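Whiteboard transcription, Tuesday session. T.W. wrote the structure tokens on the left side:
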């Protein structure tokens, strides 16, 4: 039986990945900060799907705790066949804010952790000749919504670079770029989503199902639904000046601090 490791596994997209993988027969390693929620999730997944579920409490803003997760991903005695770097959070602090602590934490959780865990998984998997790494990025990486866009653009570019290095090893790397997804992410992030038209939203189960299928085919960038594929294709060919103007309009959907 194969094993999948999921970070940010107790809510939103991460929890949905865990459920889909358990339903497909994967044993799980669930990673999150809240140990109580981890244990509740693990017990439910094990009960419903009959899989083994290991919990690993870790705050990925802490480098040593992140290294512990990376070590688990690289453990040859307990191989992990699929890694999903999903942990993250919304980011609204202005780039000019003299207090950069939130920006630094975002880099730790959404860049450094992806780098450390992705590299560890890639080494272990390539030594075995099989495996898959999925890094949750965002369509925000094609616009310019402050530091969040910069971080997610990095995740996508990093994943593409990782896929190049892994070519021929039997291991794949996929960047998932969600658009607006029905989870609690936007409320927790302080984003006013009520004015977003329904056509822009993506069902989280569809998002995860399509991504797992894309990863199985070795697709490097997974974008959900035809609508979002078209939107990103347009963004790729739109002048950056126009992208900045659109980004300014989009930023009005965020709550003031």
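and on the right, the sequence the group agreed on:
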């Amino acid at each position: 039986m194969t094993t999948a490791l999921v970070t940010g596994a107790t809510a939103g997209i991460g929890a949905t990945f865990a459920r889909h993988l358990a339903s497909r027969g994967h044993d799980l390693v669930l990673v999150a900060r809240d140990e109580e929620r981890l244990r509740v999730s693990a017990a439910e997944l094990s009960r419903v799907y009959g899989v083994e579920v290991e919990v690993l409490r870790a705050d990925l803003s802490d480098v040593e705790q992140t290294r512990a997760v990376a070590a688990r991903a690289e453990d040859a005695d307990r191989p992990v066949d699929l890694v999903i770097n999903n942990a993250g959070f919304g980011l609204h602090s202005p780039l000019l804010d003299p207090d950069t602590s939130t920006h630094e934490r975002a880099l730790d959780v959404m860049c450094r952790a992806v780098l450390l865990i992705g590299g560890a998984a890639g080494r272990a998997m390539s030594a075995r000749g099989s495996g898959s790494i999925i890094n949750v990025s965002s369509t925000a990486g094609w616009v310019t919504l402050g530091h969040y866009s910069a971080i997610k653009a990095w995740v996508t570019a990093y994943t593409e670079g990782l896929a190049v290095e892994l070519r021929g090893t039997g291991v794949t790397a996929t960047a998932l770029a969600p658009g607006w997804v029905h989870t609690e992410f936007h409320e927790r992030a302080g984003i006013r989503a009520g004015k977003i038209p329904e056509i822009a939203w993506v069902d989280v189960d569809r998002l995860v199902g399509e991504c797992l299928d894309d990863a199985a085919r070795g697709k490097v960038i997974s974008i959900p639904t035809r609508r979002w594929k078209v939107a990103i294709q347009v963004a790729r060919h739109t002048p950056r000046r126009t992208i900045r103007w659109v980004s300014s309009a989009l930023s009005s959907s965020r709550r003031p601090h």
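Someone added at the bottom: The chain has a mean pLDDT of 91.
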